[in-house]
User: What shape does this take?
Amino acid sequence: MKINILTVFFISAVTLLQAQVINTEKLRINSDQTGWNGSVDFTFDAIQNTNQIITGGARIRTEYLNLPHRLLLIGQGSLSRVNGQQLVNRSYFHSRYNYSFNKRWTGESFFQIQHNKIQKIGLRSLWGVGPRMNIMDRDTIKLYTGVLYMYEYEELTIENIINRSHRLSAYASFAIALKSWLRFSHISYIQPNLEALSDFRISTDNVWTFSFTKKLSWRIQLLLTYDSEPPFDVPSLVYQLKNGLHVDF
Assistant: This one.
């Protein structure tokens, strides 16, 4: 069977966008409850039009808090098939440990491992450590930033290429309540190669939330990632605009 080229492009673009720089900042649970808490998500979609598209995935998030210690664990995997042909196969695991020195300063360390067929990543493992700073934490505005050293080991699925690099992983997280019914949040990551600064990755995630009630809102999200030196045949710039209804219960 023939696979519609627009279907392939859409699934590939969304997968690339979600995988180039994994945004763990927005996956923090940040609960004040001592002990373990978390969530599990399962997804399954089946579409039959000019193509048969089947996608499935699962994600687990769990966090342990016992101040000054906080541990975050995230695992996710997804698989897509179009007309019986495997198109997307990606997964990752991320662990992050925080030690709070005081209300402003926190030490962070993390480990991450991921695989992505579309992005041509057979294996990518990351290790990092550095400080996180709470610049502002009020009811209407929150601002965090972090600067971490990161070591990256990467095996590509093309020509048995292996990359090793020392990178800086810097991020800023910002959220503000502009009105009682309007909230904006922004997260940016930049990860330059410390041995070749022209090799860098940038990721931004912007969300506008329009609240109708305390539990019902409309969200518009713009995601963008840029990789200055992507693997062969992988685009440098990918973006995605999403909007939809959000319900809390």
Notes: The mean pLDDT is 82. The two ends are 43 Å apart (CA to CA).
